[in-house]
UniProtKB/TrEMBL annotation:
The record marks 55, 154 as: Transition state stabilizer. Involved in the biosynthesis of isopentenyl diphosphate (IPP) and dimethylallyl diphosphate (DMAPP), two major building blocks of isoprenoid compounds. Catalyzes the conversion of 4-diphosphocytidyl-2-C-methyl-D-erythritol 2-phosphate (CDP-ME2P) to 2-C-methyl-D-erythritol 2,4-cyclodiphosphate (ME-CPP) with a corresponding release of cytidine 5-monophosphate (CMP). Its EC number is 4.6.1.12. Signal peptide: none annotated. Its cofactor is a divalent metal cation. The gene is ispF. This is 2-C-methyl-D-erythritol 2,4-cyclodiphosphate synthase.
Length: 183
């Protein structure tokens, strides 16, 4: 039996995602995947000879954020809302998925307190694009950019991430239930 909460209704969520890096001239390992075009992380396009493979634009960072938000709200994951078998999401800009995710939370009176993330990538170099990524994600989530954290690290050459075969992203999100004023 659930008991009534007397404290501020805060919820934390965690998200994780991984996408393969493929050469721009390479074939995709997924037959259903959209033709790779550009490397997108946090809604920002990076100059690279590799792209991330996926059904959408494969923006691994934005997907991890969506899952953290959905998890915090006790909702099913990104694949439930945007199935990778649905042609409607083929090649889609993941900022649209983040906008839709935030709309799902708003409909349930959840507001974002903050989001923090880590990208694990041998390349590209993320640091020069951090401000642009935060601004783009903040715009999609309709929050101030200072509520979003992004860190990047290499995997020091260890395992397939370290060999540059994939990029992973981790995210946590804190959300708060909007209070309805009494009277
Ligand atoms: N893809 C990346 C990876 C790292 N950085 C920045 O470099 C710093 C050092 O990385 P280590 O893996 O050696 O810890 C890291 O703190 C980031 O600022 C990056 O920009 N892009
Ligand atoms: C983003 C979605 C959209 O169909 O597809 P992918 O780009 O393949 O990404 P993934 O994180 O593997 O799965 C989640 C899907 O919702």
């Amino acid at each position: 039996m659930s008991r009534p909460s007397t404290t501020t209704p805060l919820r934390i969520g965690h998200g994780y995602d991984i996408h393969r890096l493929v050469k721009l001239d390479g074939t995709s390992p997924r037959p259903d995947a959209a033709p790779p075009r550009r490397l997108v992380l946090g809604g920002v396009v990076f100059e690279s000879d590799c792209v991330l493979d996926g059904h959408s634009d494969a923006d691994v960072l934005t997907h991890a954020i969506c899952d953290a938000l959905l998890g915090a709200a006790g909702l099913p994951d990104i694949g439930h809302f945007f199935p990778n078998t649905d042609p409607a999401f083929k090649g889609i800009d993941s900022q649209k998925l983040l906008e839709k995710t935030c709309a799902e939370l708003r409909r349930r009176s959840w507001e974002i307190v903050n989001i923090d993330t880590s990208l694990v990538a041998e390349k590209p170099k993320i640091a020069p694009a951090l401000a642009a990524m935060k601004a783009r994600l903040a715009e999609s989530a309709n929050i101030d950019a200072d509520r979003i954290g992004i860190k990047a690290t290499t995997n020091e050459g260890v395992d397939d991430i370290g060999r540059g075969l994939a990029i992973t992203a981790h995210a946590v999100a804190l959300i708060e239930k909007r209070q309805i004023p009494l009277g």
